[in-house]
Amino acid sequence: MSPTVRSSPARVLLLGFGAIGRHVATLLAPERDAGRLQLRAAERNVATHGHRTVPGVELVTTGQDTGCPTWPEALAEADLVVECAGVDAAGEHGPEVIAAGIDLVLTSVGALADPNLARTLLAGPGRLWVTNGAIGGFDALSAAADAGGLDSVRIRTTKLPTSLVRPWMAPAEVERLHELRPEDGPWSVFAGGPTEAIEQFPANVNVAVGLAWATRGRPGADVGVGGADLPEDADLLRRSLERVQVELVADAAAVRSRHEILATGPAGRIELGFESAPSPENPKTSGMTALSVTRTIREALARRG
Ligand SMILES: NC(=O)C1=CN([C@@H]2O[C@H](COP(=O)(O)OP(=O)(O)OC[C@H]3O[C@@H](n4cnc5c(N)ncnc54)[C@H](O)[C@@H]3O)[C@@H](O)[C@H]2O)C=CC1
Ligand SMILES: O=C([O-])CC(=O)C(=O)O
């Protein structure tokens, strides 16, 4: 049988057009210029977002704007949706994408820490694509976890102190984060599990939930081994979230965000470190994330044929 040649461009809809969304739009220029991909991007308030457009990308509203396509209209015409708007937006719009039978690339992987939402997003008929985001090495970590070879999985994320300020913090904590100097050294602001971590720092520790996803352990699932007895992904993830330990550190000397992973067990000892260049659009976000998301988009589109 001859391979299918797709004549019409793939219609990709970004949910969120901030630092990651705009970087992804730039990275997809080869496909866009070749007429193989059409890109739309949804924002809540297109009117105020207008000055941050990217040529060739049509803006869509999830809010009340007039004079541009609405989210339901754009969703009805999309082949692939790419969430890069935040954990709340993933929860608000992700389920309708999956329920419509459209594949969804998830950047705010922290959304999967909510067990009900995880179950909904994994239920189909649309397929969920979980991006690696700012970290990786998941081939080795998943291989070890699939074989039951990991007892302990840890991640330590280090960021500039001001990027960790959150509205719920006491004034003294906010002040300390603002006043931390490089010579003060690192200050641990959180230690615990990914679920609690993402509740408190939804824009900083998606990587921790991504690590739990990668190490959930699914022996033989991809090749059909295990049959009906194989636990579902959502159950495996719930257990994996209990195993991963997270530390979030503020360090005024950390010019680049740093993620250090240590996984140990019968499979051995895996130590990984990531220090990404900052996003060209937002220095608080690792530039690596948009690179990973772009790769996931290309993989999802290639699977469509
Ligand atoms: N998996 C990973 O390694 C990483 C994941 N992330 C996730 O990606 C998200 C986006 O990151 P950035 O682009 O740096 O943030 P950003 O704040 O620059 O951009 C987010 C954009 O989404 C828009 N938005 C929010 N809710 C929306 C809604 N309901 N409808 C339409 N638009 C909406 C905002 O207006 C904003 O323009 C983060 O909040 C985080 O959850 C970020 C970094 C790494
Ligand atoms: O961009 C990064 O370094 C990682 C990040 O914020 C997240 O995982 O939420």
UniProtKB/TrEMBL annotation:
Instruction: Check the record and name the Pfam families matching this protein.
Output: Asp_DH_C (PF01958), NAD_binding_3 (PF03447)
Query: Which stretches make up the Aspartate/homoserine dehydrogenase NAD-binding domain?
Result: 16-122
Q: Which residues form the Aspartate dehydrogenase domain?
A: 240-293
- Chain's role: Specifically catalyzes the NAD or NADP-dependent dehydrogenation of L-aspartate to iminoaspartate.
Q: What is this protein called?
A: L-aspartate dehydrogenase
Q: Which UniProt keywords apply?
A: NAD, NADP, Oxidoreductase, Pyridine nucleotide biosynthesis
What EC designation does it have? 1.4.1.21
**Stated family:** Belongs to the L-aspartate dehydrogenase family.
Source species, domain of life: Bacteria
SUPFAM superfamilies the record matches: Glyceraldehyde-3-phosphate dehydrogenase-like, C-terminal domain, NAD(P)-binding Rossmann-fold domains
Pathway given for this chain reads: Cofactor biosynthesis; NAD(+) biosynthesis; iminoaspartate from L-aspartate (dehydrogenase route): step 1/1
